[in-house]
Amino acid sequence: MSEKTPAHSAYFPKIRVLATGGTIAGMAGSATRHEYRPGQIGIDDWLERVAEFGLAAHLSGVQIANIGSEDIGPPVWSALHSAIGDAMADDDVDGIVITHGTDTAEETAFLLDLTLPATKPVVIVGAMRPADAVGSDGMRNFVNAVRVASDPEASGRGVVLVMGDRILAARDARKVRTRGTDDAFRGFPRGSIGLVTPAALEWFGRPWREGEGARYAYSEAMPEVPILYMGAGMTAELVDRILPENPRGIVIAGVGEGNMPDAVRERLIAHRKNGLIVVRASRVDEGLVDREPEDDPNGFVAARALNPQKSRVLLMVLIANKEGDLNRVQAAFDNP
Ligand code: DAS
User: Fold this and answer.
1) Model confidence pLDDT, tens digit, residues 119-158
2) What is the value of pTM for the model shown?
3) Domain 2-203 adopts which CATH fold?
4) Which residue in 307, 305, 315 sits closest to 175, CA to CA?
5) CB-CB contact of 267 with 243 (8 Å)
6) Which of 5, 20, 23, 235 is catalytic?
């Protein structure tokens, strides 16, 4: 672990930085080249660079991984969950910052939000441009993330994502652009829960999970839950092909409000008889999916405001926690 103490000895919040790689730690080798490699800067080097800004915080870093977030899943989730649990129990840590690729930041944030207590600030942050690019956004996003993690007001909100001067709750955050630093992430159905710059921080509304413990246990045995993205004319055979051995759950990224061809619906109903949990989400951006009358006889769950990828995370956590009661599963989607 590397430690960076500010020049003078006044009390500063103690922030644990857990680095996983991504573009924020990426290098292109040229300020104008598009191609770059994520995860090129180690946490020690990163904290050296940050020390130049003289932040009013004491930063200690741990390298959890150094990879693109397209390769992040249960193994890194487990390492992060364990490191955050240690930091939460450490009286010498006031807040946690996770540096992470943007491609799957919303899934990691939501997974941790579901399985961690809300008793200390936990902030996930990334970048849309590598560290050596013209107009790189990583260092600004990181300084903003440290500011948020240093504020006691950030506690009681679960995991939050900081990108582009915005603060988004994990349950709302999603990546909506593949390029550009403005609005690369937006919140749905709730927008920003605050705004932050290196010089200012403003919250909108009170914390909604003050003092709350973890809502679900974290499990090392996360089940595989596929997402079947619906397109016009797709056939029922695709359902059988995508389901793993002994399937426990599936998320349908449906057309419109979670709709699908009749043949696909019938095949899913047939699998319901073996205990498969079916969640109807939507491929539509900002796609709210409410229950419809047929969900009761079909035994389907409506994703409500969760997009397909976050519906998958919640369903994985519910199955890992042996939650099979459809009413309780629906309640979890109603209030993520
Ligand atoms: N390199 C991709 C990732 O690690 C993109 C990024 O970080 O922004 O998610």
Assistant:
1) 999 999 999 999 999 899 999 999 999 999 999 999 999 9
2) 0.95
3) Rossmann fold (3.40.50)
4) 307
5) no
6) 23
